[in-house]
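Key result, reporting period 2: structure in, sequence out.
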């Protein structure tokens, strides 16, 4: 980025500071949230840029007085520091995923493995909910089909950050899409044999602006209503409040049964449908879409795995970045940061290498 562009960035940052200090701006929560996210995105860049400029000025002054031993030592220290700051600034200026500050909608579906796969899908759901709780995020299970053994055939959950931030929920969960494989001895296995099963995870950014722009004609929808069900499909409601919406052109099916009224469930189901269609439209329009969404596997085939959870060895392995650790019990309790950091680091390194090759 040249000096002119950096100057524009600094001007934008100053303007954002003035806007966010204006009480009138906070009367519009959506606008304040959007400005706050942009301010959070620019803050580390501006701080690093100012630190770099200060270091360069200090180096020039120390060099002039290098005959003094103390200034010579300072010059040597600054000479080492400046390249590190330049590299950091380059990384911060790399094009970002525009959805990094967004909330997410996540779907978890059992696959091969029958009841064991459904139990594992339930384990994944609890893992993500616990991770969200650790970060103070708000979660809501919009829909879920439980099994008799306490697993989930499928579940849909929203995960939202309470405050506007550049590194939001999507920045952490965007690489979770794909097939997750489990290796363990099922509770129903009398011979102690290890079984392998799988569950699929789909993640979509809940981008309000993009979602609002998705036009869905009524003729493209089939809306069915039914009674909410609990474990094993047992009805837990005496009214047809649950809603299932089928988008006829794409075959996408979404449902919601956790709200009290049919209207609320329909509103929630439409929210999920719009997010899925917005994500699909973006992928189609941008062939160079981020690896996060492009790599998500739409089928639950054990051979197309992104991660393996091995219970006998207490091991978790992410096959995309060759990550391996032996703390599976902690991961399942929501301690996901190390594996998510490894994925984010690999993505950063890839973007940096692409930038340097240009």
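The corresponding designed sequence is given below.
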């Amino acid at each position: 980025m040249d000096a002119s562009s950096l100057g524009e960035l600094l001007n934008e940052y100053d303007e954002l500071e003035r806007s966010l200090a204006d009480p009138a701006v906070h009367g519009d929560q959506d606008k304040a949230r959007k400005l706050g996210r942009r301010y959070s995105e620019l803050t580390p860049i501006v701080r690093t840029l100012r630190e770099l400029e200060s270091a360069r000025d200090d180096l020039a002054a120390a060099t002039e007085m290098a005959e003094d031993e103390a200034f010579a030592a300072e010059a040597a220290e600054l000479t080492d520091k400046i390249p590190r700051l330049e590299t950091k600034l380059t990384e911060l200026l790399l094009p970002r995923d525009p959805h990094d500050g967004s909330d997410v909608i996540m779907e978890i579906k059992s696959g091969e493995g029958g009841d064991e796969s459904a139990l594992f899908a339930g384990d994944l759901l609890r893992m993500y909910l616990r991770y969200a709780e650790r970060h103070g995020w708000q979660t809501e299970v919009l829909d879920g089909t439980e099994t008799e053994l306490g697993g989930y055939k499928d579940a849909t959950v929203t995960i939202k950050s309470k405050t506007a931030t550049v590194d939001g929920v999507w920045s952490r969960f965007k690489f979770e899409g794909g097939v997750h494989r489990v290796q363990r001895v099922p509770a129903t296995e009398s011979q102690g044999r290890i079984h392998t099963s799988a569950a699929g995870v789909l993640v979509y950014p809940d981008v309000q602006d993009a979602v609002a722009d998705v036009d869905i004609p009524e003729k493209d929808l089939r809306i069915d209503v039914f009674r909410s069900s609990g474990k094993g499909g047992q009805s837990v409601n005496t009214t047809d409040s649950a809603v299932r919406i089928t988008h006829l052109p794409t075959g996408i099916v979404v449902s919601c049964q956790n709200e009290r009224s049919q209207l609320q469930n329909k509103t929630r189901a439409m929210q999920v449908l719009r997010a899925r269609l917005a994500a699909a439209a973006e992928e189609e329009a941008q062939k160079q879409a981020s690896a996060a969404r492009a790599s998500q596997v739409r089928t639950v085939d054990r051979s197309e795995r992104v991660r393996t959870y091995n219970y006998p060895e207490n091991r978790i392995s992410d096959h995309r970045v060759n990550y391996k650790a032996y703390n599976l019990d902690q991961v399942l309790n929501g301690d996901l940061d190390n594996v998510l950091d490894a994925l984010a680091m690999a993505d950063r390194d890839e973007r940096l290498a692409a930038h340097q090759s240009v």
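Confidence is low (pLDDT under 50) at residues 287-295, 297-303. Residues 3-92 form one domain. This case is discussed further under Risks and Mitigation.
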